[in-house]
Amino acid sequence: MTSTIGSTVLGYPRIGPNRELKHALESYWASRIGEQELRDVAGRLRADTLRSLKDAGLDSIPGNTFSFYDHVLDTAVTFGAVPRRYAELGLGPLDTYFAMARGVESLPPLEMTKWFDTNYHYLVPEVGPDTSFSLAERGVLDQVREAAALGVPVRPVLVGPVTFLLLSKPDPDAGPDFDPLSTVDSLVGAYAELLAELAREGVEWVQLDEPAFAADRTEAELAALREAYTSLGTLPERPKIFVPGYFGEFGDALDILSEAPIEAVGVDFVAGEVSLDSLSVLPGLRDKTLVAGLVDGRNVWRTDLDRALATAATLLGLAGEVAVSTSCSLLHVPYDVEAETDLDPEVAPWLAFAKQKVSEVVVLGRALREGRDAVSGELADARRVISARADAERVRDERVRRRLATLRPEDTRRDDYDVRKAAQQEALGLPPLPTTTIGSFPQTPDVRRTRAALRRGSLDHDTYTRRMRAEIERVVRLQEELGLDVLVHGEPERNDMVQYFAEHLTGFASTEHGWVQSYGSRCVRPPILFGDVSRPRPITVEWATYAASLTDKPVKGMLTGPVTILAWSFVRDDQPLADTAKQVALAIRDEVTDLEAAGLGVIQVDEPALRELLPLRAHRHEQYLRWAVEAFRLATSGARASTQVHTHLCYSEFGDVMGAIDALDADVTSIEAARSRMEVLRDTSAAGFGRGVGPGVYDIHSPRVPEVEEIARLLRAALESVPPSRLWVNPDCGLKTRNYAEVELALRNLVEAAAQVRHTL
Ligand code: GLN
Ligand code: ZN
């Protein structure tokens, strides 16, 4: 192994090519296997990963990329940030770790939240004035030794100390003004201990990730970064230090790190808009390695190697040495395209999953070191694929493009709300505080089996339709019996709110094995949006109209919004996201028109992921929100004034997008609020939407059934900021993960609470 980084990847998937870790974890949690068996599976997965990275020819191989659950939690445990309430359970180390991750009966888990703007979720560490950091757990060293024994020296990867603290929250006993960052010296001391031990093990490089600096940061936070790496860099005994920042441009942090006494910095050239001018004014880079993240670690397209090489070439004079890598860890893409047997044969060659991306990095590294001729075959191959994709007829649909080019301003505007309100009141005649649900009803094993049987081909289409209709009828009868005001069909036909639409739109492909870790053992299989999007035929109309035919109550049609469809897919990178969003919006708009024509007077377009795509840097927010809002309005503005358009958002923290939610101009907006006890209405301008609003009054993330009085209290709290003519009564989100026993009771209480509060108006 050379002493330079050369070619590398910043991290690798760990769930297993066939989700072996998921299955082993779930077996262990269900006590079907013991700890040793779980550890054996983990060891085999680590060995397989190391061997495949080595065989692929990477110059520097990342280590410690494995995790039983989450790498942020691993970092917390490594340095002793285990909250006392978990330590006091008296469990063994592995079960204490799982208690923090998943909770135990007597104790909820740590809070979980999204890892920057990805769909990966990490556990939020708790840090307080009493947290005493030290090298408390030696798993990192074990992984280093295990790799060395396999003949694969590694560069251990850890979350950097400053990012770790920026992702932490004050522990429950800390005062309100406590800032986790105030403990940075102590934490850096613990990292120093680890670095010294790694050096003694003969580890040459260590990678400390600081992605938090791809977002806007204060002077104090930047100063903490400077001090942390000055102090780690001047340790007498340590490996060489490599600090990458990713998911955007590193900004001021790059200046600081280029001056710090470390050996390498990593820059994301895919997500970040990095100007060469900004790099050329950093003299500190001249004696460092610049690790250029040129292969997209978050998306699934083959890399334009010529372009990547051209970028690398411009860097050559700016740094002491230029190495190549993925833009971020490959955790966010599936393992291997070759495992797919059912992919569209025209689209498959355009794709690169983790294994293919490793090869791309290796080719780039060789081209830089040995010259382009050494890899001319690989470069020619990539060139062929890139141009085939660019020219493919499958990618372009002129009708879709013409339609987009001829959009008029009125296509994103509806009548004034007053006009709509009167028309809807007349059409629907709803009472004040109308009750409804967010769409899905519990997905029983029977429903799942029926869908699976259709997919396998062991159930004919007519039988499938009959069974789904029976399910819809059951759900409609239940809602009538409960006395809900606006009914839904229950979504039994949908595996997932994005996948379902992707399967019915052109321009999307689906994978069989393309699993990506979302959190712990949970994986998602995002669809791949590769071409222009259109809707060949109605998608939901048949189910929705069947539901409507069964009842005199209004039935709400249920669609997924364009932004959410993009957020939960792998999206083409050959045109602006805004254009792709508008294409999806037009497809949804067609569905809205058809639902309306079929007699549905209420249509909900869900945008739970609206906030997920919000860029990390504030100066990009406005542009994003502009097109996101426009896409939603394009999807919904074809509706008549008398058609009531609902939207639904969840995954909390709406503060910075309230203005955008208002601009969606939906007639009714339902938002998650039960857990925060309606705070969402007090803290923000939700009350000022001036239109209908349904703050959730039943927390569907918990098996708990809320009492009538509790719901009534929440409604009375909501009435302090929202007039009764605009307040809706609904759960926080869809009910599909709950069971019928809970849901029936909770909805009965919800309807009763609404009735009680209505009487007091
Ligand atoms: N309509 C969807 C459902 O009820 C909404 C899900 C969501 O917001 N995540 O399942
Ligand atoms: Zn939701």
UniProtKB/TrEMBL annotation:
Cofactor(s) demanded: Zn(2+)
All copies of domain Cobalamin-independent methionine synthase MetE N-terminal, residue ranges: 7-315
One of the Pfam families matching this protein, by short name: Meth_synt_1
SUPFAM superfamilies: UROD/MetE-like (SSF51726)
Domain Cobalamin-independent methionine synthase MetE C-terminal/archaeal: 433-755
Assigned protein family: Belongs to the vitamin-B12 independent methionine synthase family.
UniProt protein name: 5-methyltetrahydropteroyltriglutamate--homocysteine methyltransferase
Gene name as annotated: metE
